Amino acid sequence: MTNLTETYWEQGRLDDAEASCVDVLKRRKIAFGDAHPDTLAATASLAVIYWKQGRWDEAEALEVDMLEGCKKVFGDAHPHMLSAMASLAITYWEQGCWDEAEALWVDALEGHEMVFGDTHPHTLSVMASLAVIYWERGRWDEAEALEVDVLEGRKKVFGDTHPGTLLAMANIAATYGNQGRWSEAEALEVDVLEVRKKVLGSTHPDTLEAISHLAATYRGQGRWDEAEAVGY
Length: 232
Hints:
Elements: H1 3-10, H2 14-32, H3 37-52, H4 56-74, H5 79-94, H6 98-115, H7 121-136, H8 140-158, H9 163-178, H10 182-200, H11 205-220, H12 224-230
């Protein structure tokens, strides 16, 4: 974003931010053409503004243009191209276009593995996003396989007690719970809760979320007294 557009954005003046960004985009198209990096950057900024406003169709149209422009300028495996792919995938996801989102996340994951490697934080983030798509569609085995890879990667990169690692553990536990694999879910949730209490404290929102998940797992097994004892 330009300084003026960003100022409007920070103030929550989205209409003004949009007007400023549209003006910048028009000027850059005239000065540089549609596929110039500066034009693509302005396109991306305007798409983000549409995102914030929930105007998914308009965001999608811009992101499709941006993706095509990035392919021409940078090629299939450039970080800018991968970022454009991820942005469009999120927009599809927000609209419930699961097939389109999945196809892009699969391509984005392959590209990230090629460019950054299997355990780079960007790669793990894309992997987690694809796992969410599988999770939402009830494809538990595929979701679990990716979530396990995310957990192992984050442990290597960040360590056992990093928030991203704990989130990956919680995601696997949720996948187990949706399959009725209560013992496996419980074991992970107990670990997540213990670490969050130690690192964040008993009243942090993430700790309270972990308590809620563990209580739900106890309830799923009919262990009402333990669910009550946990605190939810």
